[in-house]
Amino acid sequence: MDIASVLNKAIASLGNQGFATARIDAEVLLCSVLKKERTFFYSHPGEQLTEREREEYQQLIERRRHGEPVAYIVGIKEFWSLPFEVTRHVLIPRPETEILVEEVLKVCADGKVKNPRILEIGTGCGAISVSLASELKDAHIVATDISAEAVSVAMKNAHNNGVVNQISFLLGNLFQPVLGKFDLIVSNPPYISEEDYGRLPLEVQGFEPKASLLAGPDGTEFHRAIIREGIVYMESGGWLLMEMGAGQQHRMENMLKESHLYDSIAFRADYAGIERVSIARRVPADG
Predict the structure, then answer these.
(1) Could you tell me which residues are beta bridge partners of residue 277?
(2) Confidence band (pLDDT; 50, 70, 90) for 162?
(3) CA distance to 19, 39, 273, per residue, from 43 (Å)
(4) Are 67 and 119 in contact (CB under 8 A)?
(5) Spatial separation of the C-alpha atoms in residues 106 and 271, rounded to whole Å
């Protein structure tokens, strides 16, 4: 059976399951099997697959039909135009998290921080820290995670993307393993409420780590802890940037203001218009 026939069959199979991304999913999975770029399929539609390739491809399509995310099936997800290994021990990086990276880079580019010391809480696969290290060659980054498996994946991604010497990975909950002070603290913490968790699609609920998603009754349990504890690890005038969920801006703003520890509070929406990132400065010692 040739590439065109195999692809069309797979697209129809995924489409019948209701996957809106049936074509791209089918093509990415075939790329994984054949070790080819997607453009190859259009230039060689009549290329024949071996029996082994057809069997392997069908197995991947079945995994996708049962809801498993493509990124877990192929083991790779692109973020900030960099490849990241992902396993079921880490969340799959989302495009909206690139907004958080953008805002950290803006703080540094505005001259507010030079040769920054950056602390990331909850690094997961390392997408944020590795992306920042790739852009900020003079930065030193410390990244923590409570999961030993996540730290292992993040270290591998730092190595594969050539920034392992810029990042120190620490195992522990939130700030527990951290020493010293930082110019910026950044985090994409869990932010799904207990109520909203039950509404998540199967490919999230059934496959991604629950501990990396769930954050108490209102989804801000970890934000609250980072706002409260982070002040100890932040330089005077340092910056705190966190990703948040839809509808959480008001709670986030109240928590930051009521702490009386932060000023210059601002928010950045993602490209869907959802307020996605909170930005706040620790009140300077002479402020």
Answers:
(1) 243, 268
(2) very high
(3) 26, 6, 38
(4) no
(5) 17
Question: How big is the CA angle at 250 (ends 248 and 251), to the nearest 5 degrees?
Answer: 70
Nearest to 162 by CA among 72, 82, 256: 82
pLDDT digits (tens, 9 = 90+) for 78-132: 999 999 999 999 999 999 999 999 999 999 987 767 789 999 999 999 999 999 9
Average pLDDT, rounded, for the chain: 95
Q: Supply the pLDDT for residue 114.
A: 78
Of 186, 83, 78, nearest in space to 136 by CA: 186
CA distance linking residue 246 with residue 48, whole number of Å: 47
13 burial type by CB count under 10 A (0-12 exposed, 13-18 middle, 19+ buried): middle
pLDDT tens, residue by residue, 200-236? 998 999 999 999 999 999 999 999 999 999 999 999 9
Kindly write down the DSSP assignment for every residue of 20-59, as one continuous string: TTHHHHHHHHHHHHHT--THHHHH-TTPBPPHHHHHHHHH
- Give the integer Cα–Cα distance in Å for 19 and 81: 25
- What pLDDT does residue 1 have? 87
> Quick one: which of 130, 131, 32, 148 has its CA closest to 89?
148
- Token pair 């810029």 is at which residue? 166
Cα 232 vs. chain centroid, distance in angstroms? 25
Give the domains, in start order, of the chain with CATH numbers: 3-66 (1.10.8.10), 90-282 (3.40.50.150)
Where do runs of H (alpha helix) occur along the chain? 3-16, 22-34, 39-43, 51-65, 70-74, 98-109, 127-135, 148-160, 194-197, 202-205, 221-230, 249-259
